[in-house]
Design a protein that fits this description.
- The chain is an all-alpha fold.
- Helix content is about 70%, strand content about 0%.
- Helix 7 crosses helix 16.
- It is globular.
Length: about 400
Amino acid sequence: MSHESSFNVPTLPGQRECSKLAMIGVRARKYFANFCTTEKAQNLFFEYFLPASQVVAIGHPFIHYQPGAYLSQFSIIGFILIGIIFLVLGLKLKTDEIKDAMRSSHVFIVAIISSLFVTGSIVAAITKQLPWDAMGQEEKVSMFGPYEFRIGLLLYYSVPCTITAGIVLVAQAEGNLPMAGAVATVANVIGCYTTPILLKLFLSNLDAQFDIAGVLIKLTCSILLPVIAGKLLQCIPPVPKTVNRFKRWISVITSTCLALMLWMKVSKAVQDNAFDGVKWQSLLLLIAFVLMMCLINIFVNSTFSVLLCLRNTYIKVMLLMVSQKTLVMAVTLVQVLPASLGEMGLILVPCFVAHPTQILVFSFIAPQLKNHPSTLLVRAGCRPRLLLCASVEPEQEISG
């Protein structure tokens, strides 16, 4: 036996296990040390602040509704929050994107029409055939829920396309960002006037009517004027640089304003016992309805894309931007609609259900459009079938 081997001590099974556990512990510490850096913590905070704030805003009133219900008595608070949100929109508004988008005006116009009018009309036709509980009925009988759910669906699908989520998904799918930004901006400005008019038309058989002129005046003061003020502030040289530098924190401010509006409306609804008797099956049916509308929106906007023979980058805008709806505008309109339309907390329930559902659906579709666009929409050999197709698109893509 050699000199070295005579000093070898056999390793016991327990010691080997301890050594393995120690190595696992070292690797786990390194992983969490890398994961819990300040930069990554900030990224997680900014990425999940909006959904987390909405969950808190909806859930907290069911635990303690008194503060939110008390603040909901002061309508001026809601208008201040709306003003802040749309002042920020004005600060971020880029008119150069609209000018670039007009180079492909037929895409721009069809996207605006589809976003503002087509989806709401489809939802109005479908929901009119469903058996809802009558407004004010104490005993909830229908599986589809109270009539306020129908008003909420009409409201949500009549508002324009989403801004932030849509642009993020278009960028992820490598779509045309200038067109996406232009469509979102113009649609949201026009939508604050078209949505109340559409609601009045869709609810023409409802006894509770509302003064459309009064609603439009309120929307002008609370939406359009702050947007104009924000755009004018861009003329001050330090303002655009400051907005660009703190854009993530500014998004936190707008998310907080939105969450506060949700919190006050839900608190008031809980105080009025508006959710009593609402069946959980009704919520499942709402989710199923939203999923069905996602498919319908994809089909409608895919059809427009084929008929117009759009390039791939424009198709991604039609599918990912135009097919979605904005929660901000829906909550804003609830602030100015008359109480005679029903319990506002119940009207907001379909919006709460629809918004995260559609984001999940299109978040799955965006990577597929980037990697395998041809599998989702076959465009080979398509020919113009509308008069709009006669206009020839510029050969060069609009720069992103």
